[in-house]
Design brief:
The protein contains six helices and no strands. It is mainly alpha-helical. The chain has one domain. Helix 3 runs antiparallel to helix 4. The protein is globular and about 45 Å long.
Length: 151
């Protein structure tokens, strides 16, 4: 229990603490991202690439504010500069995500991994795969280029 308290409240100069906090923030942003994605694809009948873009941007906004204040503890920041850099990295993450979805779903690569199961399940698993890849890209790039003052 003490370790959890330290993770949530202690100084966050440690790379592992930052990554674990980023994973928690990413989890919150991902829940929003996946929920909006599935709602858009399954109920609003929006194609997966535009739906991914809408949901990804929503997650990006949540991720920025939580990362800035809790993960990287940026007390002094230039909001405009930081947000532009953060968003640029997010756009690269979005491109990675959209390309992965294109190859996994449209080029049917996901079928190699999971076979021919329910299309909604394949779409969901494809989205989860992109989230995992983009998590590592976003954390590494944002730590190095946006929130570098505490590295």
């Amino acid at each position: 229990m003490e370790n959890i308290k330290k993770l949530l409240t202690a100084s966050n100069n440690n790379l592992l603490v930052q990554f674990l906090r980023y994973a928690i923030v990413g989890g919150i942003a991902s829940i929003l991202d996946v929920s909006l994605f599935l709602l858009s694809v399954n109920y609003l009948q929006i194609r997966h690439i535009p739906a991914n873009t809408i949901s990804f941007v929503s997650g990006l906004l949540v991720n920025y504010f939580l990362s800035r204040d809790w993960v990287f503890n940026q007390q002094k920041h230039n909001f405009k500069k930081d947000f532009i850099s953060f968003s640029f990295i997010g756009i690269i993450g979005l491109l990675i995500s959209n390309l992965m979805l294109y190859f996994l779903i449209d080029c049917r690569i996901i079928y190699v991994f999971l076979g021919y199961i329910n299309t909604k399940a394949l779409t969901f698993f494809s989205k989860l795969m992109t989230i995992i890849v983009v998590l590592f890209w976003n954390f590494t790039a944002r730590r190095k280029f946006v929130f570098k003052s505490i590295n």
